[in-house]
Automatic annotation (TrEMBL), chain A:
Protein's UniProt name: serine C-palmitoyltransferase
Similarity comment: Belongs to the class-II pyridoxal-phosphate-dependent aminotransferase family.
Enzyme Commission number(s) from the entry: 2.3.1.50
Catalysis: reaction(s): L-serine + hexadecanoyl-CoA + H(+) = 3-oxosphinganine + CO2 + CoA
Needed co-factor(s): pyridoxal 5'-phosphate
Species assigned in the record: Camelina sativa
Domain of life, source organism: Eukaryota
UniProt keyword annotations, A-Z: Lipid metabolism, Pyridoxal phosphate, Sphingolipid metabolism, Transferase
Gene name tied to this protein: LOC104711374
Domain Aminotransferase class I/classII large, chain residue ranges per copy: 102-460
From TrEMBL, chain B:
Classification lineage: Eukaryota, Viridiplantae, Streptophyta, Embryophyta, Tracheophyta
Keyword Acyltransferase: yes
Enzyme Commission code: 2.3.1.50
InterPro entries assigned: Aminotransferase_I/II_large, AON_synthase_class-II, PyrdxlP-dep_Trfase, PyrdxlP-dep_Trfase_major, PyrdxlP-dep_Trfase_small
Pathway: Sphingolipid metabolism; Lipid metabolism; sphingolipid metabolism
Protein name from the UniProt record: serine C-palmitoyltransferase
Alphabetic keyword roster: Acyltransferase, Lipid metabolism, Pyridoxal phosphate, Sphingolipid metabolism, Transferase
Organism encoding this protein: Camelina sativa
Primary enzyme class: transferase
Obligatory cofactor(s): pyridoxal 5'-phosphate
Residues in Aminotransferase class I/classII large domain copies: 109-462
Gene this protein is translated from: LOC104729537
Family: Belongs to the class-II pyridoxal-phosphate-dependent aminotransferase family.
Pfam families hit by this protein: Aminotran_1_2
Length: 489, 481
């Protein structure tokens, strides 16, 4: 749980209030100066009312240069960030031809497959030459190639379920699968901090949605008991089915889900478990099999396992793994399978090759090395940051670590200061996070070396001192004091 | 006895009157002497107010006890997660062993492929493969992040600029998946309370977008301009007073479900008369219609500025993956922060974006591919014009040739099974790969089902002949009733 210091909360509210007031003032003055200019809408309703994009125009545009930074190389450990200039006070940004080589702490490149890889890329290029970039057809028409069939088998075996189905985009997997599994008369209980794709899929299904407190199994039990006893709203008929949706690693908190307790509660109350492993597959667990392996949960207890290939496998797309019947049913009814173009064949080959490297089937132990390195890197980085006095969220072993900023002014300050020192970080504010809880999010990769991490720590410490985000007292340097003591003696 | 009572009563009455009269006997308020009976009336008034303010009788609330809740939880039995699998759900699609060009390999046999929307034959084109290979060597496969967080690679920005230049619009935005383009764009602009008039034959992506937008949706008859006009008329009379209500017409350039082409010039006339905005999905018409491939607007001679939002999936004529949306700068800028499929999802793999740039360059430099495509469509129409038991319902210029059953068996499921059998036999016996309509139970479209053929500029005359002969033979065999 994040407990914001009282003074920081007051100053954050004050900052937002000031920004809001200035924004409103500018809006009014624009209205005054422009009222004589005829509106060229000619009877059409405005496509966007003034208050709907107030946040974008008055708050986001001021710090627009911290987001959407283009890069001109592969998203590896070191990346070329393109510099942009603006001559109308950050309202529009133009690319320049200058780039700066920065250490990349922002891309989701957990196992280092995001750039040219000596095993994967030749195979990908071979498959490109054989099958071309796209099949231009949906999976049921002519979009299933032998590579797709191999991929589904490979993924099912890797994840530990009998069968799997693959879709071309992780976001669309959630949006298209949840309406097939549950409809009106069903209940979806989802964690309060679930990703937008799950929320959209749940809304599109027509089922009733209830939310339980983030990662709190006791509250989940309370909600389940209440809901089963009460039944459907207004008619009080019993629910047709209940699906509980949780994520493996929450991308904005870095926390790992309390899966064993949640699975035992769902078994007791006969609810189905849907696990979204977008960030955890391939990144945690001894052989990279995700949160089930890490926490010792049997994969047969989880009814539907979903994941994406964008993060750890350096490709694109998403998958659903479950029992054979479930996958057969989804293949017959899922709209993404029936109507959307199938996943690009070279991307599918990349996933197969990446899984082979991770499991050591390519004949080397690069996979095991990568997994060990990402665990070491994450734990080292997190421990060092906490020693320096930053407020870092997330559990041990998780490669995602958010550093709390809180104040809206610190968001661009931290980001720009880091970029000046050639460190590329990601900062997130409202609306991706709650209003008061802005943060900088670090994603560690297996391709970062120890020197890279030490340099990053130095830069972050300097930027942290400048912006004043070391909210906790730094751990005292015990070893130095002892050494001094011995010298004196 | 009685007289005693009467005496007592009179005494009480006198006593009460004295009490009431006495204190106020000397009070004169505003020129009115206050009588005693006013106090009685005031008292009565207070009693009435107290009675009115009492809450009405409600039976006491009895929440369920812990034991009752536990019992209910024990008794509750959920439905199974999925209904039991039937035989027809076990149908396996054909597995390709080579690229999905005009000819492909299935089960070791060479097959003529009419099931890939490879309209210009760009699958396997060497320029595309070259640019993909160099992009793969430079950038790897994935982009490892959403557009806002270092997932914007310079090829994405170049691709957006190239698309805008090709179509002549101010700006465009790239999406990483064709299907997600529509269901992310529509909820971005259409909120609760807005009005959308959509064609009843739009594909599932658009239907999902309409559902997510929570606006009021009115469908008009498929490709029927008269129905559209009357619907717009009805809406304008009903919602006359609302000036801030946004109104949209949603249509597709070439309909995925029927192969019809939307009459854009009439839609634009109606839109200007009733002040609606148009959202057009040009997935199957981009790169195909119009003399230089610029889509439906060029085909009908309508300036592209009149269409407010144009979206397209690139998995058809451009032989790559992903989608884009194009329009004026305000619309595109707004989507960069509010479109959920753009903000919360990883960006398009860079090699696919560079394939898109190369594909557009190829289309620009070789307009004769479009001429070949048109010739092929005309040849196929000639070959299938005398087919028995089925009729051609698509537009003669559309690259999707749609054959519907003349006599439907009444149930959509039966029809689908029959068409599936026909497509399977076409593959097995004549080595022709065609598409039989598939409907998910989530799809609200009720248009007739049929067999679809995607014509490509890479098909040769003999391919088209084989396909038409095969379908004619199978139709006469299977549809003998």
């Amino acid at each position: 749980m994040i407990t914001i210091p009282y003074l920081t909360a007051v100053s954050t509210y004050f900052s937002y209030g000031l920004l809001f007031a200035f924004g409103q003032l500018r809006d009014y003055s624009r209205l005054l100066f422009d009222w004589w200019r005829t509106n060229n809408l000619q009877g059409y309703a405005p496509i966007c009312l003034a208050h709907e994009d107030f946040y974008i125009r008055r708050l986001y545009h001021r710090i627009q240069d911290c987001f959407g930074r283009p890069i001109s190389s592969a998203p590896d450990a070191w990346v070329d960030v393109v510099e942009r200039v603006s001559n109308d006070n950050n309202k529009t940004l133009k690319r320049t031809t200058k780039t700066s080589r920065c250490l990349n702490l922002g891309s989701y490149n957990y196992l280092g497959f995001g750039s040219f890889d000596e095993y994967c890329t030749p195979r990908v290029i071979e498959s490109l030459k054989k099958f071309s970039a796209s099949t231009c057809s949906s999976r049921v028409d002519a979009g299933t190639t032998s590579v797709h069939a191999e991929l589904e088998e490979c993924v099912a075996k890797y994840v530990g379920q009998p069968a799997a189905i693959v879709c071309g985009m992780g976001y669309a997997t959630n949006s298209a699968i949840i309406p097939v599994l549950i409809g009106k008369g069903g209940l979806i209980i989802s964690d309060s901090l679930n990703h937008t794709s799950i929320v959209n899929g749940a809304r599109g299904s027509g089922a009733t949605i209830r939310v339980f407190q983030h990662n709190t199994p006791s509250h989940l039990e309370k909600v389940l008991k209440e809901q089963i006893a009460e039944g459907q709203p207004r008619t009080h008929r019993p629910w047709k089915k209940i699906i509980v949706v949780v994520e493996g690693i929450y991308s904005m908190e870095g926390e790992i889900c309390h899966l064993p307790e949640i699975v035992s509660i769902c078994k007791k109350y006969k609810a189905y478990v849907y696990l979204d492993e977008a960030h955890s597959i391939g990144a945690i667990g001894k052989t990279g099999r995700g949160v089930c392996e890490l926490l010792g949960v049997d994969t047969a207890d989880i009814d539907i396992m979903m994941g994406t290939f964008t993060k750890s496998f350096g490709s694109c797309g998403g998958y659903i793994a479950g029992s054979k019947d479930l996958i057969q049913y989804l293949k017959h009814h899922c709209p993404a399978h029936l109507y959307a173009t199938s996943i690009s064949t070279p991307s599918a080959q990349q996933i197969i090759s990446a899984i082979q490297v991770i499991l050591g089937e390519d004949g080397s132990n690069r996979g095991a090395q990568k997994l060990a390195r990402i665990r070491e890197n994450s734990n080292f980085f997190r421990a060092e940051l906490q020693k320096m006095g930053f407020e870092v969220l997330g559990d041990n072993d998780s490669p995602v670590m958010p550093i709390m900023l809180y104040n809206p002014a610190k968001i661009p300050a931290f980001s720009r200061e880091c970029l000046r020192e050639n460190l590329a970080v990601v900062v997130v504010g409202f609306p991706a996070t709650p209003l008061l809880l802005a943060r900088a999010r670090i994603c560690i990769s297996a391709s970062h070396s120890r020197e890279d991490l030490i340099k990053a720590l130095q830069v972050i410490s300097k930027a942290g001192d400048l912006t004043g985000i070391k909210y906790f007292p730094a751990a005292p340097k015990k070893q130095d004091e002892e050494k001094n003591g011995i010298k004196l003696d | 006895m009685a007289s005693n009572l009467v005496e007592m009563f009179n005494a009480c009455l006198l006593w009460v009157t004295m009490i009431l009269e006495d204190p106020s006997a000397r009070v004169v308020l505003f020129g009115f002497p206050i009588r005693g009976h006013y106090f009685l009336e005031a008292l009565l008034g207070v009693v009435i107010v107290i009675l009115l303010s009492q809450k009405s009788f409600k039976p006491p609330k009895r929440p369920l006890t812990e034991q009752e809740i536990d019992e209910l939880c024990e008794e509750w039995v959920p439905e199974p997660l999925i209904p039991p699998i039937t035989e027809d759900m076990r149908h396996e699609p054909p597995v390709l062993e080579s690229a999905a060009g005009p000819h492909t390999t299935v089960n070791g046999k060479d097959v003529v492929n009419f099931a890939s929307a490879n309209f210009l034959g760009l699958i396997g084109h060497e320029k595309l493969l070259e640019s993909c290979t160099s992009a793969l060597e430079k950038y790897g496969v994935g982009s490892c992040g959403p557009r806002g967080f270092y997932g914007t690679i310079d090829v994405h920005l170049d691709c957006e600029a190239r698309i805008s230049k090709f179509l002549g619009t101010p700006d465009s935005i790239l999406y990483s998946y064709g299907l997600s383009t529509m269901f992310s764009t529509i909820p971005c602009f259409c909120k609760k309370g807005d009005i959308i008039v959509a064609d009843e034959g739009v594909h599932w992506g658009i239907q999902n977008g309409l559902q997510l937008s929570r606006s009021t949706i009115v469908y008009f008859k498929h490709n029927d301009m008269e129905s559209l006009r009357s619907t717009l008329e009805k809406i304008m009379t009903k919602y006359k007073r609302s000036k801030n209500l946004r109104r949209y017409i949603v249509a597709e350039g070439v309909y995925q479900n029927s192969g019809q082409i939307a009459p854009l010039d009439e839609i634009v006339k109606l839109k200007e008369k009733y002040r609606f905005r148009v959202i057009l999905d040009e997935s199957n018409s981009f790169g195909v219609l119009g003399c230089s491939g610029r889509g439906l607007a060029e085909h009908h001679g309508v300036p592209i500025e009149k269409i407010d939002v144009v979206t397209a999936a690139m998995g058809h004529a451009l032989a790559t993956e992903g989608g884009f949306c194009t329009g004026n700068a305000r619309i595109i800028d707004y989507q960069r922060l509010s479109s959920s499929g753009y903000v919360f999802s990883a960006s398009l793999p860079p090699y696919l974006a560079s394939a898109a740039i190369t594909a557009i360059d190829v289309i620009d430099q070789n307009p004769d591919m479009l001429v070949k495509l048109k010739q092929n469509i005309a040849l196929l129409w000639k070959g299938l014009s005398d087919i028995k038991g089925m009729s051609l319902t698509s537009n003669p210029e559309s690259p999707i040739v749609f054959l519907k059953l003349e006599k439907s068996s009444g149930s959509a499921k039966e029809d689908l099974l029959l068409l599936e059998k026909m497509a399977d036999l076409a593959l097995k016996e004549d080595s022709v790969l065609v598409v039989s309509s598939k409907r998910s139970f989530l799809d609200k479209c009720r248009l007739p089902v049929g067999i679809k053929l995607y014509v490509s500029a890479g098909h040769s005359e003999s391919d088209l002949l084989i396909a038409s002969e095969s379908l004619k033979r199978l139709a006469s065999e299977l549809l003998k009733s």
